Each structure stands twice: as C-alpha cells, then as structure tokens.
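We modelled the chain as a single entity of 291 amino acids. Its sequence is:
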Amino acid sequence: MSHALPFLGDSGRRPEAPVATYSICAADVSAGQWGVATQSKFLAVGSVVPWAEPRVGAIATQSYANPRYGPDGLALLREGSSAVEVVERLTAADADRASRQLGVVDADGRAATYTGDACHAWAGGRVGTGYAVQGNILVSGETVEAMAETFERTAGRPLAERLLDALDAAEAAGGDSRGRQSAAILVVERDGGYASLSDTLLDLRVDDHPDPVVELRRLHGLHVALFGATPRDEWVAVDEALRAELDERLARLGHATLADWAGVANLEERVREAGGDAIDPVVLAELRRTS
C-alpha cells in the first residue's frame, strides 16, 4: 500500500543500536489470550518489543525498532485490519522499514511477520496458526525454527507456558549471537488480571541479568504462586482440627482472619473465592511456613 498513516508517518528515528532479539507473538483465541515473549542482548527489551490487547492482537517490534508500531498497530487491529494488512501499512509508511522487524497476531489468530532487507544476519521469521516468530542477529535460523516447533508441539497448554517454552527452545538452539541480557513476557486477557479488574494477565520483565530466560522462569513461578488458582476440587477440607490449627497460627501472627493475613502475604487472590469449608493448599503451606 502506498498511503501513509497519519498517526505514524515516516518520522521514526533509528535508535543508536538495534533491538537485536528473538520474539514470539501468539494467541490462544479459545482462551481469549494474546501474548508476546522475547529475549535480547539489549537493556530492558520488555520496554520496547511487546505489545498486546485482549480481543485485538499482539505485536513485537524489534531490530532497529520503531516503538510506534506497537500502539499504531494495535489501533489498526482494533479497527479490523488483519495481521498481514497491519504489517503492510506500518512498513509502507516507514522510511526506515528496511531496518525493521515486526511480528503481528490478530484477533482471529492470523499471523504475519516482516524482516527488512537491512536487518543484521541471521534475520528472519516464520508464521503458523496463532503465532509469529522472528529474530535478528541470531546464531542461525534454527533459533526461529525451534520457537515455532515448540509452540506447535505444546498446543493445549496455557499460553504463558508455551511462550516460555519457546524462549527456552530458542536459547537451546543458539539464540542471539551477541549473548543475552534481558527478557520479557506479556499476556493479556479481558478481566483476566489482578482482582479481575485488569486485562494484564502477566507482565514480567528481566531488564539486566546474565541468564534472563532462567530468571524470567523464576519470576513466572512466583507469579503463579501468588496469583494463580488451584482447582477447587484440590483444596484441603477444613475440619475441626484444621480449623483449630488455622486459628492458632493466625493468632500467633496477629491476624483475626485468614483474609487479613492473606492480604499482608500477597495471597489475597487465592482466598478471594474461599469459604470456611476449604482452603487453597498453597495458602495453607505458606501459612504453616511463616507461622
């Protein structure tokens, strides 16, 4: 397309250094989730590359990244453009498109990827049902292939876990040829975040670390422990003996109710649906550990 977007134009300025990285944009449409995961030899990659909006899509902008591709691309997706159309319109309006790399997944799970001719080798991408993977300054194309194959092989699992598995596979296949520094994962779902009042299901960033993907895994584990949900049929029944134990432990910690203590322990999401007849085993384990 030859027309320029009024909100993008061709005023994007090339950064001092490329956001040389690998990333995956993906969707689990049936679960209502869209997300991006990325790793790079670049400080705070999560502040530039990943963009996502529930029921709209996900975008990764990298190489000599144009950060405007994020909000402007989401605006186009919101208006009904497909992933392919978004890539075409964003890059057509950008004078520095030869140095850009871009991945897009739309509301229907359709995907597109773009690698400009001036991106540093190895650079390229691959698309499949519900995902786009891309990378630049990589050891080889095996990094991108490993991400794609891992995402396809893990179908049926939670989107966040599949994205993290894709990062692990990319690292094992060679990753960024310059090394590693930062990583990030963003997953969105309508009302899927904190207290069901946020669309951000997961937003974790490792800005500067010798092994950022491993550290990102650790943070994800903490997130699941604090904000995850144990299936109700796996909760522990509160009989008379356990009720006495809970009361004793809470009193020892200076709290009158489980909810009071959980708020201090940052476990309020795990007791929000609780009744008096059962307790989340994660909450029980932490109460026993701290009292």
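As a brief sanity check on the tokenised model: Residues 212-227 form the longest helix (16 residues). Residues 232-290 form one domain.
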